[in-house]
């Protein structure tokens, strides 16, 4: 492969900012070249459905959007979706492959390498530059022989590498230096620069440390990125830790999201944060006095339903029935029904589970098949929340196993509402990306509290451009262009 077409962003640990750096670089480089993102293997419960119905990690979809292109399965050829008990659903090139334990998955790792090579070659045939992302920490020395996403990608492409460290965690110099020392020599030789991320304060106080790090390793520090709020969707559940469960938000409308143990696609609710106080409530926490409750998606509906019941959270939710809106998305929608019949697809053994009984639906899991599709639906009259937008279109995407029967659909043929119109379920992820839905819900909640509905503030600058501007200002882009064989102006 032409190494000048590839750039690999590795990290000292998870959540150090690799995805954000790749996203920003994709936006910058796409102004002058055809650019695509790539992550060999992603472990995430936040996923995205491509136009052709393939499932990939949401981070690569975001990076593709930053590059101005449509996401494809080749950009994330392996997606692992943890189900619990050390088992993950393996998604290969956007399609469900099997549920596997870590041991059985790594037994076939050579076969997976072939999948990666094929995906990379197809991208290289179409795009001028591929900005690649590693996963977790690059120096997991116990995993080198089976690490396809860091060491594997580095060896397949022989690409120049930038190593990112998070100073907010503390010990950033030790983590950068230690990672370099532990990398295999054939990978270490390709590390061309460091980035220090999430710094609060004056970068001048770091100068002596930066100088010594460069002297000890012979590798330049490309820059120090500041800590700032990203306005792009979160990559995975580790990001929920950045969201306080008891935020002192300026918003008066209070929406409680049930933090299921296997919560997936919580990015569904990030658009609501612009208009409401959004709290993630653990199963053992008090719900407080929310204006609305949302049960989110989950990677394992029956297991999370069991935990919801056993914890007592199901009874707490039922106490609000008829008083405030209770919404369920995907797995949360299935939980709101009367029952779930599982032939063994979800839990491994055939069983019937009692639901919360708030919606007149029954869900059946009878085949290892997943519905993955982008959809446009029309809002139906279904009660006080969405009646004012009835007849309007909404867009979203479905990612689910199991089928639910409904006599009172909400969005086209999808979803269900109860007689009051206050309990609503839907399979549509991305629902609140639709401004009409978002505004209808928050307007209803505000007026019920006697508050005047205030339109949301939409910043003038595109979030991808905002991120790109920070990277341009703080990183030595001329060195990065040089790594890609480009001139000092990026051409």
List the helices and strands and how they pair.
Layout: E1 6-11, H1 18-30, E2 35-38, E3 41-43, E4 47-49, E5 55-57, H2 58-66, E6 78-84, E7 87-92, E8 95-101, H3 102-107, H4 109-126, E9 129-133, H5 148-157, E10 161-166, H6 172-182, H7 185-188, E11 191-199, H8 207-217, E12 221-226, E13 254-259, E14 263-264, E15 277-282, E16 292-295, E17 297-298, H9 301-311, H10 313-318, E18 326-329, H11 331-335, E19 339-342, E20 351-354, E21 362-365, E22 371-378, E23 393-400, E24 403-404, E25 416-417, E26 423-426, H12 435-448, H13 463-474, H14 477-483
Helix pairs in contact: 1-2, 1-13, 4-5, 6-8
InterPro entries: Class_I_gatase-like (IPR029062), CobQ/CobB/MinD/ParA_Nub-bd_dom (IPR002586), CobQ_GATase1 (IPR033949), CobQ_N (IPR047045), CobQ_synth (IPR004459), GATase_3 (IPR011698), P-loop_NTPase (IPR027417)
GO molecular function: ABC-type vitamin B12 transporter activity; catalytic activity
Function: Catalyzes amidations at positions B, D, E, and G on adenosylcobyrinic A,C-diamide. NH(2) groups are provided by glutamine, and one molecule of ATP is hydrogenolyzed for each amidation.
């Amino acid at each position: 492969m032409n190494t000048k077409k590839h750039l690999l962003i590795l990290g000292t640990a998870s959540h150090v900012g690799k995805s954000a750096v790749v996203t920003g670089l994709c936006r910058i480089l796409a102004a002058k070249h055809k650019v695509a993102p790539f992550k060999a293997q992603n472990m995430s419960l936040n996923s995205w459905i491509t136009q052709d119905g393939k499932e990939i990690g949401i981070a690569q979809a975001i990076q593709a959007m930053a590059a101005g292109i449509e996401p494809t399965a080749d950009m994330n050829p392996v997606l692992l979706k943890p189900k619990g008990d050390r088992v993950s659903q393996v998604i290969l090139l956007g399609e469900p492959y099997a549920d596997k334990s870590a041991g059985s998955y790594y037994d076939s790792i050579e076969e997976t390498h072939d999948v990666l090579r094929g995906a990379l070659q197809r991208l290289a045939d179409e795009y001028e530059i591929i900005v690649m992302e590693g996963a977790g920490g690059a120096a997991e020395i116990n995993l080198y022989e089976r690490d396809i996403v860091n060491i594997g990608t580095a060896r397949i492409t022989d690409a120049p590498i930038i190593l990112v460290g998070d100073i907010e965690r503390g010990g950033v110099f030790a983590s950068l230096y230690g990672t370099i020392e532990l990398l295999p020599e054939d990978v270490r030789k390709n590390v061309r620069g460091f980035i220090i991320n999430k710094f609060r304060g004056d970068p001048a106080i770091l100068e002596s440390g930066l100088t010594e790090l460069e002297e000890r390793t012979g590798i330049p520090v490309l820059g120090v990125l500041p800590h700032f709020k990203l306005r792009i969707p979160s990559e995975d559940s580790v990001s929920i830790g950045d969201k306080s469960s008891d935020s002192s938000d300026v918003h008066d409308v209070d929406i409680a999201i049930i933090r299921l143990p296997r919560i997936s696609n919580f990015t569904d609710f990030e658009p609501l944060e612009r208009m409401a106080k959004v709290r993630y409530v653990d199963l053992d926490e008090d719900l407080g006095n929310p204006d609305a409750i949302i049960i989110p998606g989950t990677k394992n509906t029956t297991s999370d339903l069991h935990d919801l019941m056993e914890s007592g959270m199901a009874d707490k939710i039922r106490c609000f029935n008829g008083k405030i809106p209770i919404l369920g998305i995907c797995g949360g929608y299935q939980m709101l029904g009367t029952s779930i019949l599982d032939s063994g697809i979800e839990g491994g053994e055939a069983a019937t589970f009692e639901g919360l009984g708030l919606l007149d639906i029954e869900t059946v899991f009878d085949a290892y098949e997943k519905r993955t599709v982008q959809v446009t639906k029309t809002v139906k009259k279904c009660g006080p929340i969405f009646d004012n937008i009835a007849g309007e279109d909404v867009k979203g995407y479905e990612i689910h196993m199991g089928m639910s029967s409904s006599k009172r659909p909400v969005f086209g043929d999808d979803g269900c509402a109860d007689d009051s119109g206050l309990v609503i379920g839907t399979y549509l992820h991305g629902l609140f990306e639709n401004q009409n839905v978002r505004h209808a819900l928050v307007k209803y909640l505000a007026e019920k509290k006697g508050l005047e509905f205030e339109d949301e503030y939409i910043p003038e600058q595109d979030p991808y451009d905002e991120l790109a501007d920070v990277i341009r200002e703080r990183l030595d882009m001329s060195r990065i262009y040089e790594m890609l064989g480009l001139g000092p102006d990026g051409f």
